[in-house]
Each structure stands twice: as structure tokens, then as C-alpha cells.
Amino acid sequence: MKSSSILHHPSSIRTLRVGVFDSGLGGLTVVKSILSTLKGAELFYIADTKHAPYGEKSKVQILAYSLEITRYFIEKHQIDALVVACNTATSAAIETLRETYPELIIVGTEPGIKPAIETTRSGRVGVLATPATLRGEKYQQLVDAHVDGKEIALYEQACPGLVEKIEQGKTEHPETEIMLRSWLDPMREQNVDTIVLGCTHYPLVSNLIEKIMEHRLTLIHTGDAIAKRLLTLAEAKGHRNVGSTALYVYATGPIEEEIMMNLMGKCISVSSISTTS
Ligand code: DGL
């Protein structure tokens, strides 16, 4: 009797293992949401800083990085779930990842166009994203699905160079402010009241964006929605959401640790790895 109750004891269920990746620090904005939602899991995070920024690379390159990282997660950490904490990699790779690994729970990231439309009062919505995300088919499908037929003006702005500034730790730097002003001043003048942060790095410059927009706006990011989706899919596969969650951070190249500590609010150690040749 005792041994059978041990056999069916919840502790015999293997801890959920989740791989999360991005080109760098940005995906940690999603990890933060996951950590406050998901219990009793192990999170493995890869910052692929060797190949950042993804947003200025070709779809073929981004797909290759995404497949290599996923293979690494499966071989080294036997993950049950994958979170693509990057709009750019989601756009380039999510379909192939789902076809290649049908047994994995896979959650991607896409610009929050729908919540932005539900939020705006002026009907003027700004979208900041990487060049690759904005030129991707997935983005166009998202706009077609949610904007067509509505009285909404979208101000789409690719932000080349911004991810590099963030990766260099220049989240409050005058150079970053000048860059952002060149894109945001016209939006402010056009009475944009809602801005979609269509790249997971951009919440790291939300203070600057709010300052330039004179605090008259709502910023939309999707970390909490991604975390909820992950939890729903994991529970459907038997995950019991209890206990503590451990986080292991890896980087394929240099990483700005101060920004990371500020973001996560605690000390995190980073291990170096090489996933790609
Ligand atoms: N943070 C990623 C995104 O959401 C990638 C940015 C980049 O590397 O260009 O798009």
C-alpha cells in the first residue's frame, strides 16, 4: 500500500524543463513573467549574443540559429517546452520548429497588435520592431487579421541599431535617446497613444520611450501573455504548478551583466556555451 502510494506520489512526476531563447538580453523580459507564473520548473535561458542582432539577419540565418539552439536544449537538457522569446525568431522559425519537434510544447512571441487595438483611444497605434519582424509574412498576417476594416492608423517603425545599444548597456544613454527621438517624435505629433513593443529587447528602454512620449501612452508587451500560455499548455500535459522554479542562464558570446542584474533584481550567474560553429 505504502509503496503504491509512493509510485503515484506527485514527486514522481518529472520537473517541467523549459528552454527559452533570444538573441541576447531581451528574452529575459519574458523570463521575468515566466518566473512569476510558472512554479516547480527548471528554466534554461540562452542569450545568443554571438549572433545578435537577429533583426538585421536573413530568415535563413535566423532559422539556422533557432534550430541549433533547440537541438542543444533537447540534447543537453531534455526540455519539455520551448519558448521563443524573440519576435524575430518566431517570425522566421516557429513553423519549422513546430514541424520538426511536434512532441514539444512550443510558445512563440508576436507583436501585441490585438491588445493595442483594444487599448487605443486615439485610434493611432505605433509599432516598434526589428526590420526582419516587420518585413516577415507573419507580421502582415497579424495586421490583416486584427486591423483590416477598423478605424486604426498603424505607425510601423523598424528600429535598426536599437538592439545593439541595449546589448551594450546603453539603455539610458543620450545616443539611444537621439535614436528613439527620431522615430518617436513624429508619433507623438500624430497623437499616437499606444505603442506595441514588437521586440523583447524594447521593454528595457521603456523609460526613455515614456519620457519622449511625455508619458501620454500605453506600452504593450507580451511577456505575461506568453507565460500564461506556457502554463496552460504545460498543465494540459500534467504539469502541477507547485514548488520553486530554478533559472540557468547561458550566453554564446559576451553579455552585459549589469543590465541583466537590474532587470532580474538579483544576482544571476551566466555560463558560456557554444551552440553553433
Ligand atoms: N529580442 C528579439 C526580438 O524580439 C531580437 C532582436 C534582435 O536580435 O534583433 O525581436
Describe this structure in words.
Helix content is 44%, strand content 18%. It has helices spanning 2-7, 28-37, 59-77, 87-100, 113-119, 131-135, 137-146, 162-167, 174-189, 206-212, 223-236, 257-264, and strands spanning 16-22, 41-47, 81-84, 105-107, 124-129, 153-158, 194-198, 218-220, 246-251, 270-272. The strands form two sheets. A six-stranded parallel beta sheet has the order 4-3-1-2-9-10, sandwiched between helices. Helix 10 (206-212) links the parallel strand 7 (194-198) and strand 8. Helix 2 (28-37) packs across helix 11 (223-236) and helix 3 (59-77) crosses helix 4 (87-100). Mean pLDDT is 93; it is low at 1-11. It binds D-glutamic acid. The site of D-glutamic acid has 16 residues, from helix 4.
Provide key terms for this protein.
277 residues, alpha/beta, Rossmann fold, single chain, 2 domains, 10 strands, disordered N terminus, 6-stranded parallel beta sheet, binds D-glutamic acid
Short description:
Helices cover 44% and strands 18% of the residues. With 277 residues, it is of the alpha/beta class.
